[in-house]
Design goal:
With 380 residues, the protein is an all-beta fold. It has a domain of 117 residues: Lipocalin. 1% of the residues lie in helices and 47% in strands. The longest helix has 4 residues.
Length: 380
């Protein structure tokens, strides 16, 4: 089966899965971030052309863009879901979940699934709602659609599986929740015949047939004296190459796990809130201070550090060919060299923040902005 910009945590209440936001003291955020320096004039060492664009309603929720082959699924905050053929930029279909979204979107290229703020899991196919089912708690991680099933991880640590065509719940597994969880996308992907999820600071391999645990590998352990300091949830995009999966623990560590053996290969201290990307040699990540770091995949030793974007608010990176691609909150798309992090090109998309990690479909890099711009770029 193939299956610190501070993010407010939320408190999970037991025996009802009700959730309320908590106020975070200014001390938790530290001193205000300094203003980033002006960027030098762009020197385009690599050509990049815009291939197509599609318009969505505004994106003001933690969107995860889904790629399956040539199909890219995106969603707007109002519940609009669009399936795009990345080769041409044509809309294959457009539909609506019928309510504002808290998480999305997962897709296998045909079926798409999102979660609404009303805690409803909604499956769409061909632009039509196929089914809706109520979840136990709020959800910030996009569903995973794989093997004709839809997998969901809610903020109360409940993981569930649903039949993709009927919406029948196949199984549910509940773990003890921390007092606080991040209001950010977590980790969930298919690796061979194993469902791999993030549970706290651990990467967990589960049997997709029934949800039982096969292995657990700790990337980070809770630390500190209060609930906020002890947050080490795995968050954002991961880098998978074969059986190697590398992930980020919130403001704690970056690490890689051998999913065949269920063993931690390495973990390194790293202060950031966004996910990682990588290739067979390197793992790339953006830090809370705007630095971009590359670690060697084999042992986690640092390969290079780019400080040119310091104090900018960055997305997680995308590794694509000779480039490491990332967006920032001013709407700029940066192309860096995968070899040493030096700049290769820089583009402005539509003037609004880039809100989702760029993704690659075929030879097309797909970018989504806060204003709802979905743009396909083709690097040389």
């Amino acid at each position: 089966m193939n299956f610190k910009r501070f993010v407010p945590p939320t408190r999970v209440l037991r025996a009802g899965a009700a959730m309320v936001s908590i106020a975070v003291l200014a001390a938790c955020q530290g001193t205000p971030k300094p203003k980033p320096a002006e960027l030098p004039a762009n020197v385009a060492l690599m050509g990049v052309r815009q291939a197509w664009s599609v318009k969505l309603p505004a994106v003001s929720f933690p969107l995860q863009t889904s790629v399956s082959g040539d199909m890219v699924a995106v969603a707007g905050a109002d519940g609009t879901v669009v399936m795009i053929d990345a080769r041409s930029g044509q809309e294959v279909w457009r539909g609506s979940a019928g309510a504002p979204l808290s998480a999305g979107v997962g897709s296998d290229g045909s079926l798409a699934a999102v979660v609404t703020r009303n805690n409803e899991l909604v499956a769409l196919q061909g632009g039509k709602v196929l089914w809706k089912e109520r979840l136990t708690a709020e959800t910030f991680t996009a569903p995973l659609v794989a093997g004709r099933r839809v997998f969901v991880q809610a903020a109360d640590r409940t993981t569930s599986a649903w039949d993709g065509q009927t919406g029948r719940r196949l199984w549910v597994q509940t773990r003890t929740a921390e007092n606080l969880v991040l209001k950010k996308p977590g980790v969930m992907l298919a690796v061979g015949d194993t469902l791999v999820t993030g549970v706290g600071g651990r990467l967990v391999g589960m049997n997709p047939a029934n949800g039982t645990s096969r292995w657990e590998a700790p990337i980070a352990a809770p630390r500190g004296t209060n609930d906020v300091e002890r947050l080490v949830d795995l968050t954002g995009s991961v880098s998978r190459v074969g059986d190697s999966v590398c992930a980020r623990a919130y403001y704690s560590n970056v690490g890689c796990v051998d999913t065949q053996r269920g063993m931690l290969v390495w973990t390194k201290s790293a202060s950031g809130a966004e996910g990682v990307s990588g290739d067979d040699r390197l793992v790339f990540g953006t830090e809370s201070n705007g630095n971009v770091t590359a670690w060697r995949r084999t042992d986690g030793e640092r390969a290079w550090l780019n400080e040119r974007l310091k104090y900018r608010t960055l997305t997680a990176p995308l590794s694509a060919g000779r480039s490491v691609i990332l967006g920032d909150s001013t709407g700029l798309l940066h192309f860096l060299s995968r070899e040493d992090g030096s700049p290769l090109n820089r583009l402005s998309v539509d003037g609004s923040a880039i809100v989702a990690t760029p993704v690659l479909s075929g030879n097309t890099v797909v970018v989504v902005t806060r204003n709802g711009g979905v743009v396909g770029y083709r690097p040389e």
